[in-house]
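In this supplementary section we document a worked example of the pipeline. Step one takes a protein sequence of length 108 as its only input; no multiple sequence alignment statistics are reported here. Step two produces a three-dimensional model, which step three serialises into C-alpha cells for compact storage. The input and output of this example are shown verbatim.
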Amino acid sequence: MSPVTCGVDADGRVLISTRETAVKTRNLRRDPFASLCAFTDQFFGEWVQAEGTAEVISLPEAMELLVDYYRTVAGEHPDWNDYRAAMVRERRVIVRVTLSRAGPTVSG
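The serialised model returned by step three reads:
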C-alpha cells in the first residue's frame, strides 16, 4: 500500500489520482484487485479497510474525472486551464475502485 488522497464519486466508487508511470498503476493494470486502508484526520482514530476491483482510466478520458476528483477533495481550482495542463504534463490517471468488501465489522 502507499498513502494517497481518495475521493468518492456519486456511485460510491473510490477515486485516486496517480501517474501513468507509477508502480501502482502498472500493478493495477496487471491485477485489478485493490486494498485500501483509510484513516480519519487523526491517525490513531477510526479506520476502515476496503477492497475491490480497480479500473485505470488514462487521459484523455480521465480529464473530467480528474477535475471532479479535485473538486471532491480540494474544492474549486483557481485556474482550471493550468490544472488541466498539469494533468497532461504529469501524465495523470484516475484509479476508480468499485468496493466489494469493507471492515472491520467488529472491534476488540
